[in-house]
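Structure request: F-box domain-containing protein, Eleusine coracana subsp. coracana.
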Amino acid sequence: MPPAAALLDEMVEEVFLRFPPDEPKHLLRAALVCKRWRRIVSDRGFRRRFCELHRKPRMLGFLYNRSHSSIFVPTCSFRPPSAAHRYGPVIDARHGRVLLLPGFPDWEKRPLDNAFVVWDPITSERRELPLLPRSVRSADWNAAVLCATAPGGACDHLDCCGGPFLVIFVATDKGRMFDYAYSSETGAWSEQTSAQHAAGCRMALSPSALVGNALYFLNGYLKTVLKFDLGTRKLSVIRIPPSCYFGSIVLMITEHGGLGFATVVNSELHLWSRESGSEEDAGWVQSRVIELKTLFPAHILDSLYVTGFGEGVDIIFVRGNRKDFTIDLKSIQVTKVQKDIGIRLAHMFPYTGLYTPGENSLQRALLRAEVIVDEAMGRHIKNQAMLQQLDVRYETPCIEATTLDTFRYQYHDEKEAKDKAVVYVQNKFC
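Returned structure:
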């Protein structure tokens, strides 16, 4: 018969597994209670079971570009340990990874001069890719990041963070389209493949869509879609229906798992889908129309357009009168984005996943809690090496002299100081 402690741990784990996946602060709060609970929560087996139980990823936040940087806006209690804007504008987000391209002022036109960065907001890990081959001269390009096992369908992407990934770079130039593929396993870009295309097929820096074994990218005039087959690396062009040439378009995955796109026309959200196996222009059908007049006031409707689609969560981002909203395609529920972005905005990049804190992030959070408690009790930390190790000045500017003095004068009781420190760490790192 298993010892009582083991049985208790199993019962505790069953309770933790039922915590809401879109509120990761509860798991961190549990991990801060004692070492046994921390081991349970940070165990890879627990994280896998947690992901399998809840299955469907949640939207943890979204990114948008502002000037020469990107901003991560959380939609739940999750907070990334480091900020995306340090690494440059966002190009794509998928399978728990974010693709960024540092460098300014001409980062859109010069992917050659700046190295792409793949960032994991959950673990804060970042990987700088080698520069593209110097033979690339096109100013019309786009790129996408995805799990390396996605082409074969061998991964459900519930817990593939830290695993191998691919970055696909596509571009058009002088009547031809070409691509490069980067693999994290080889650490290098592949040889170029290319194909001819009709005049006027230019790339747009808008969110791509992964449907089955292919990536899809919009062109600059919103009249065609470039298809990249991940298995054969073959490039081809699909035309958008002429009735949708005007207005903003976002590519999406339909409810049946096929390629689709969304656009706003005359106060209606039009959803289009491409018939399976069709390579003809007539392969598009309008699958759904959502009336927006009952969902938005008139001053929003007048300027409403689509800005993004959340893969795996079936959410459309729209913007009107400089206000941002999400539309749940299943419930038709509209939610206003709490952060007032206020700037001219073209695209949103939703970030989805299932967050469970790993051992490293928990240890770092606990160390910082100890720093706060020690300072709150008047035990000043003089070890600069420890402060540097904790990244206090770089990642957590709030833990400075003023903040620590506030803790020191407010909390004379050690238990009260510890309680306050735990609350502070929860708010800071979840």
